[in-house]
Amino acid sequence: MQLITWNVQWCRGVDGRVDPARIAREAQTLADFDVLCLQEVARGFDGLPGSRGEDQMAMLRDALPGYRGFFATATELDDGRRRFGNAVFTRWPVLQTFRHRLPWPADPAVPSMQRVALELVLQSPAGPLRVLSTHLEYYSPRQRMAQVDALRALQAEACGHAARPRPDGDPGEPFEVRPRPVSAFFCGDCNFPPDGPEHQRMLAPFADDTPAFVDAWGAVHPGRPHPPSWGVHDRSHPLMCCDFVFATRDLAPALRGVTVDQVSQASDHQPVLVTWA
Asked: The pTM is what?
């Protein structure tokens, strides 16, 4: 089973060209993936460099036959004409979808924008699995830490539902109980480095029996530094790792590989591939 996470910079490559089909093509070249988590997908944002205001979700869906695509809006302007957010594409059945607005406490010293986490409950071959695609604030450490705490709270909430399921409703009605399992991958551009306090907070134990997270790279490559995922080809950015996959601890034994592709120039970030059994 394979998952890719990638900040696609509104599908804009290092060459300045916006090309959603190229994103799909390069992702499929990297792996025959089951799940593709994307950040910075734009719909109608004609003010972004290189963009003509195209609906990138529609174009990605066309370029990925056999996959279902889901979108969560972080920023929405002009009566919904302009939307910017995260996406997940998968060929597995989707049992539930959640769109979580992340905290955005005031920080007037720096620019910022609303952030969102898109959560899908998938029926994988190994059983129900949660996958979240998110993008945390770049400029504000205060907002970024609040968003990390919100992601941890979502994990605690899901574990509470899994441990103490509510009474079931009739099939097909909103009260029907669907799985929301403990096992999860949290993926995305976190905008913090591996030695940052937010990374430490993400891996910190919970106060109760909620399973903690592991950094998938560290679990597969213990002692090896994270390779850079930003600034590899676009040297206007610092060379650093800020794109991560965090897995719940129960998934750690199943992890078989984590690769940060260093070749693609279809975005200013590099795609991260995770393989598990």
From this structure: 0.97
